[in-house]
Amino acid sequence: MTSSWEELLPGTRRALTHRIARAQVEGRVPSLVGAVAREGRMVWSGAHGGVDGRAPDAGTQYRVGSITKTFTAVLVLRLRDEGLLDLNDPLEKHLPGTGVGEVTVAQLLGHGAGLSAESPAPWWERTPGVLRPGLADVLGDRPVLHPAGRRHHYSNTGYTLLGSLVEAVRGASWEETLRHEVLGPLGMDRTGAEPVAPHARGWAVHPWADVVLPEPAEDLGLMAPAGQLWSTAEDLCRFAMFLIEGDSQVLSPASVEELRTPSVPAGAGEWDGGYGLGVQLAHRGGRTLLGHTGSLPGFVAGLWASAEDGVAAVALANATSGPQISAVAADLLGIVADAEPRMPEPWTPLPEVDQELLALTGPWYWGTSAFGVKLVADRGMELYPLRGGGRGSRFVARPDGTWAGLDGYYAGETLRVVRRSDGSVSHLDLGSFVFTREPYGPGDAIPGGVDEGGWRGVGE
Question: Residues in domain DUF7586 (predicted)?
Fold first, then answer.
């Protein structure tokens, strides 16, 4: 069976349109644009409200605030992939003289460096960047608030440092590097540091009256890598699909997956989400979402993607506050994923099989706990509990005949086959845990040995 996701069903489109209309009205914002992408492309967009007397569309620019941070993180991972830095490097190695140089690149990416959330007054989002001409002006007198690596503490100043790191290592401005290395290759022609018409104007909406006030749109200067960008729903759909699939021109799928892997423990009351390396993570409606939200005076933005569903959604509005834009984007994604779930890939048999590997499949026992071992493509293995709880994992084959765990408790651990002197299989060793063909079989290589009396009844 084959299928195409090119067109959404009429009922799905109606539900999406209603959701953004309700968000625009209830949130009291001048305009709101939403879009959904799947299979690598935008498949729906809609808007409610107006920009300069006309309806906006997926090509209308809005300021996206902290979604900018994910772009900055991509630039840093590119430097790592090229061997120009290591994520465990102290900042001082590449950007000396900041006064906080002992924190690592990874800690800055994951907001685990313990730096302050904001720069010193005046509030950087509403004032020109020229008021903070140097990193010392951004960091202030007390830039470190918490021990590095111990907790998640969101830091705009940390991403200012990362932007300056990119410039120091690359030898070009953050904006130029972003345009050349990310925006261009992804075809994001309507994304940049400055607005290009058609674009929305940012407004503040009075909380107790239906009147508005224009908000300033400042050039953030050194703070730009934390929140400067303007973009469109269509461009952000391209970026969201990149966060699901990767793109060899920008980052490999493995490096993109690293971006979205949790980096530091969530704080108290934050167990419904987390943060990777420049990517926010959230649990909504039984799904794990990845992306980022953003806000600057006059604008709110949300971008979420579900790798499992292959669906992404964007919501943009031009008001300082109003709709819960993160929830709007998540709802758009959920509407499509629930109404038109992804078709599973067809099951197909393996093209060939190694008989020695096939002989390893079936039931194994860790103590008395039963597990199954399954052979999958590319000589990979899957280990899973057959009943009750237990630790399972997927394993990828290594050239030396062992396997490396890909997820869960056994991520990175080594699975190997231990053979007897005659070449027959004795047991599986997984990070020192012994899996045998029988539960405590006589003669098995069980740590601590097996009682010589064997299995017995209680009265024996």
Answer: 353-437
Rounded Cα gap, residues 439 and 448, in angstroms: 14
3-class secondary structure per residue, 308-347 = CCCEEEEEEECECCCCCHHHHHHHHHHHHHHHCCCCCCCC
Q: Map residue 184 onto helix, strand or coil.
A: coil
* Contact between 280 and 291 (Cβ < 8 Å): yes
Residue (of 104, 158, 162, 154) closest to 274 by Cα position? 154
Radius of gyration of the chain (CA): 26
How far out from the chain centre does Cα 299 lie? 22
Angstrom distances, CA of residue 131 to CA of 121, 127, 211, 218, 347: 10, 7, 31, 11, 60
**End-to-end Cα separation, the chain, in angstroms:** 60
Q: Which residues of the chain have pLDDT under 70?
A: 1-6, 266-271
Dihedral pair phi/psi, residue 264, rounded to 5°: -140, 160
pLDDT tens-digit readout, 322-346: 889 999 999 999 999 999 999 988 9
* Distance of alpha carbon 265 from alpha carbon 132, whole angstroms: 32
Cα atoms in the Cβ-side hemisphere of radius 13 Å centred on 102: 6
CB-CB contact of 358 with 351 (8 Å): no
Q: Which has the closest alpha carbon to 232: 111, 59, 97, 405? A: 59
pLDDT at 390: 84
Q: Which DSSP string do the residues of 359-420 spell out, in sequence order?
A: TT-EEEEETTEEEEEEE-GGG-EEEEESSSS---EEEEE-TTS-EEE-SGGGTT-EEEEEE-
Strand partners, 404: 396, 414
Percent of the chain having pLDDT more than 70? 97
Are the CB atoms for 397 and 384 separated by under 8 Å? no
pTM of the model: 0.90
pLDDT score, position 3: 40
Burial of 356 (0-12, 13-18, 19+ CB in 10 A): exposed
The length of the chain in residues reads 460
For residue 82, what are the contacts with CB-CB under 8 A and spacing of at least 6? none
Cα torsion angle, 344, 349, 353, 356, sign = positive
